[in-house]
Amino acid sequence: MRIISYKETINQNQPDIMKKITKLFMAIGLFVAAAGFIFSGCTKEGPQGPSGTNAAATCQECHNFSDTIVAKFFQYDASQHATGSTTIRATSNICAPCHSSQGFTETVTTGAFNTLAGINNAAPINCRTCHQIHRTYTSADWSLATTAAYRMRYDSTVTVHFTANGGSANLCGRCHQARVASPALTKPSSNTDSISILNNRWGPHHGPQSNILAGKGAYNDEAFGNSPHKDTAACIVCHGGYAQGNIVGGHTLKMTSTETGDNIAVCNRTGCHNGATSFNIGGAQTTISGLYQQLKVKLTTFNMLDTTTMTIKPNKYAQADLAVFWNFMLIDADRSMGVHNYQYTHDLLQAGIDHFITKGY
Q1: Is residue 63 domain-resident?
Q2: Would residue 148 be called left, alpha or beta, if left means φ above 0 and alpha means ψ between -120 and 50 degrees?
Q3: Above 60 in pLDDT, residue 40?
C-alpha cells in the first residue's frame, strides 16, 4: 500500500480549498456592499441649511492680533477680585451670589437674594461673571451681564437704580452692599430699648460701597444729604478708567497705589475735578478722616468697638447706640473716606459724634 504524503494531499484537495476561499471572499464582498448600501441610505444628505456666520467675521472682533484681551487679563490678574480667596464662602447659599461666578449669574437670572443651594465647585468672579462672554461671538460679548435696578439686602423693599453710564454701577452694586442686620433694629432711635448682641460679626458686612453711593442703608439717615456722585458717577468710570500698567485703573479696579499715588487722571478726564492732584479735593478726605477718628474714639471709650479686630464687643446695647455703630461700620467698610458720597458720609459721622456727646462721651 502506497502512503500519500502531506504535500500530495494538499495538491489533491487544492481545487476544493480554492473554491471555499473564493466563496468566502465573495460572501465578504457581498456583505461589505450591502453594508455600504445601508450606510449610504442612512446618511443621505438633507436639504441645504442656511449659511452660517463666518468665524473670521465674528470671533476676530475680539480675538485678533491686538493686545486688548491680553491687557485686560494682565490688569485683572492684579485685582482684588482675582486674588481674593473667599470662594470658600460659596458653599453657603447665602454667600454664593457674591462669592462665586455661578452664584452671581444664578441670582441675576432669578432675582433672588440667595442661590438655590451652596456651590462647592465655585469659580471666582471672572470675565463671564460680569460680561456676556461668548453669547454672540461678536464684540457685543463685552456688554455687561446686567445693568438693571436691584433690591437692597438690608431692606428688600428698597430698590436702587444708578443711571449714570447706562446703569453700569447696578452690576457692581448687587454685591457691594450691606447685608441685613441680624438681629435687626426695630427702634433705632431708642435710648431705652435694648438688644443683646451675641456675635462680634454683627454689622453691615464688608463692601457696602453702593449703600454709601446711593445714600441708603444707614439708620436714622432721613435728614442726611447726598453729593452729586450719587447721580453722576459710575463705578467703572472711575475704578476702570485710565489704566497704568497693572497697578491702577483698567481691570485692576484699583484707584491708588504707593507707586502711582491717587489715579486722579480719571477725575480730571471726566471734567469734574480739573486740576485736582489727589482724591483729597478741597480737603474733603481730611475732614471725613477727622470725623471718622472722633467717632472711633467715642465707640472705643464706650467699650463697644474692639479696635484690634474692628468688630463689636458682644453685649447688651440700646438700639440707638447700635444704630451709630452700624453707621460707623458702613463708613469703615466703604473705605473711600467721603469720595463715594461726601455729604452722606459727613452727616452720618457727625450724627454719631453728636449722639455720644449727648451721652457724655
Answers
A1: no
A2: beta
A3: no
Q: What is the pLDDT of residue 41?
A: 55
Question: Model-level pTM?
Answer: 0.84
305: which strand partners? 312
N- to C-terminal Cα separation, the chain: 135
The answer to whether position 265 is within a domain reads yes
Alpha-carbon gap, residue 72 to 68, rounded angstroms: 6
- Per the structure block, which three cell numbers stand in for 177? 452692599
Residue 315 dihedral angles phi and psi, to the nearest 5°: -175, -175
Expressed as residue numbers, the domain containing 336 is 146-358
Q: What is the pLDDT of residues 292-340, one digit of tens each?
A: 999 999 999 999 999 999 999 999 999 999 999 999 999 999 999 999 9
**CB atoms < 10 A from the CB of 225, how many?**
13
Residue 230 lies in a domain: yes
Nearest to 323 by CA among 162, 207, 154: 154
Asked if 217 and 178 count as a contact pair (C-beta separation under 8 A), the reply is yes
- Number of domains the chain is built from: 1
pLDDT bucket at 159, cuts 50 / 70 / 90:
very high
Q: Which amino acid is at 231?
A: D
| Segment 117-158, tens digit of pLDDT | 999 999 999 999 999 999 999 999 999 999 999 999 999 999
Domain-located, residue 315: yes
Rounded CA separation 128/134 (Å) = 9
Reported as half-sphere exposure (CB side, CA atoms, 13 A), residue 357 has a value of: 8
